[in-house]
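User: Quick sanity check before I run a bigger batch. Here is a single chain. Can you write out its predicted 3D structure?
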Amino acid sequence: MSANSLWRHRDFLRLWAGDSISQIGTMVTLIALPLLAIKVLDANPFEVGLLTTFETLAFLVVGLPAGAWVDRMRRRNVLVVADLGRALLLGSLPLAWYLDALTLPQVYAVALLAGVLTVFFDVAYQSYLPHLVGRDHLVEGNAKLEASRAVSQIAGPSVGGALVQWLTAPYALLVDALSYLWSAAWIGAISAREPRPERAPGRNLVAEIREGLAFVLRHRLLRAITATTGTSNLFSAVLNTAFIVVLADQAQLDLSAGTIGLVFSIGSIGGLLGAVAATRVARWRGQGPAIWQSLAFAAPFTLVTPLVQRGWLLWAVAVCWGVVSFSTVVYNITQVSFRQGLCPERLLGRMNATIRFLVWGTLPLGGLLGGLLGSTVGVRETLWIGAVGMALGFLPAFLSPLRRMRELPTEYDVEGADGAAIR
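Assistant: Done. Predicted structure follows.
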């Protein structure tokens, strides 16, 4: 073990310990919340799509100002407050169900407010890592965090499905609430303290947001990455909305919560392998090619999803989603590490928030579109629309200079390619 390895970095290990358990709780909610809507509150495909919209709407509503606000605050404090707030919100759902007062509007409200806190957490989280570990350890840090995310995506859905069958969906959500409390405790124990960010005189929120937008939109590599991720997210939201309905609805496959959780878990195994392999893939293929080739490799496996049926096809789809997860994690680690290394620290919050606004802002649109399509043209047809769109998501990166750039720039340049090694 290297003396400089993050295995010896106590504060990073605290961040990692908190995040790892919290990610498992989040995966429990990924299963439990839509099953709560479908099986407890009898939600139809449009209402399930609306739930996806509310879960991710915050990225459109507060995505841009969140970056400017985070850049004005100590990011560790933002992480702790966001965790505590999400614990309280999710804890309100089983309480309302126990009191026989649970309604879909409350579920939507909790999803929306928890989404707002998630926006702040995610922006602060990605901006905090370079301060905590230093830019030389960004790839290692992101790989370890993605490995935890991948493990949670393997274990979380199966645990969530089992908990829904054992405790019912409302009480299963308590697991996620407790995981946020766990995360808040570990992050609060981090000993390193950030200095309070200095605010330049004469600056205002609009000017700071504009600066973050300009940083991203003036750089052609960041534009290509943003277009690729945004397109993939839009159609993944369409596909996922229809997929959970196909699996759970009585008029479709009507699978048990445990079986649904197992399908998602099998599909997530590839993510763990992707976290382990991402550094090697980037070194082997080159940083730029690794970004677009990872998604292009996943394209044909995505197209298997609409064929899902009971029996062997169900598990074939799960395995294909494992390949998609592998490719997605390789893509995320490579492009996020590039973005973090390129951006000066004073702009990290705004850069991350701008990109999250642009790429995660497509998720509520995709959820709404998936719900509308599922209620009109049918859920099977909606699966095909989502799968084809996801399969073509790599094209913006492929059509950019990333296609041949084995080494990506580490200093900002408006042209986005000057000084980069093209081989």
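Residues 10-40 form the longest helix (31 residues).

User: Great, the batch can go ahead then.
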